[in-house]
Model the fold of this input.
Amino acid sequence: MKYSLILVALLGFTACTAAEPAPTAKQVTPAPSNVTVVCPTGSCEKAPEVQKVEVVKPIVPEVQKVEVIAPIELAEKPKKDEDVLDNENDLIIGVVGQGVAPMNTSSPAQAYALAKRAAVADAYRLIAEKVKGVRIDGQDLIKNMMVKRSTVRTSVKAMVRNANIVETTFKEGLCEVEMEIVLSHSDFAQ
Amino acid sequence: MRSRDGNRTFSLRLCSVILFNSLALNASEFLISYSYIVKDATLHNETLHISKAMKKCTGTPQKSFMFDTNGEKDLKNIISKNNEDFINYIHGLGLHINHNDKTKNLQYSSYTKMTLKTTCFKVDFNDNFARIAPLK
Done:
């Protein structure tokens, strides 16, 4: 009986102690201390301000409004002034070929004939280049950041017929042949 | 039954055959090729090969050209006398162009070859002129 009374009394005491708030820890201000700060530059009068770090909100890109425009045509339409080969219109291509006579000619007439032949070949080549196109190959050799060799090769292979010589001039060893060819749509029709 | 005219139709046929053969025998076929090379704007080599065809050519005559022959029957002589005109005529028929040029370290050189591939020509010889036409 005695023990039970003692037990109840102990329980009641412990219950009362648990109900009381826990003692808060007191902030203790540090005691002023004599600390001298030596500034090497001598500009330490003001204490450095604590930089406030601003939280930058992420910028949400605005959706740009895109106006729907008519589709862009990459290939320009041929102007009306340009010559275009079609069913109705023939196309005239004119070139001027140049040729020179060799050094060892026996007479001025021979020089003229040979120079003219060279000029005709040049004119044919120019027509072929205009009508059919040119193949171009290029090659550069670079060594130690310097161009050692630069080569450009062009080649044309074609067959030209019905080209006419319009005018031939021979002046100071240079022969110029003006040549033209008429292209009609039926020549290329399959 | 034999006709009253005798062999008149036969003789006419015979005459026409002889006439045709005589005309046909005057027509000859020749193989002609032509080429020249132009190097650095200067003519270097020009060749014209003419030979009689050893085999009958096929095809129909195309654009023709007429020579004044003055009784000459040798095509080589005829062409040599009318060299410029014939070369111009060949140019009109169509030449193959093979051109290559090269620029190496800013130095330019060019090579152009013009060729008429071997073509069969039919040549009709007459008293004062000859007609030549390629067969295609």
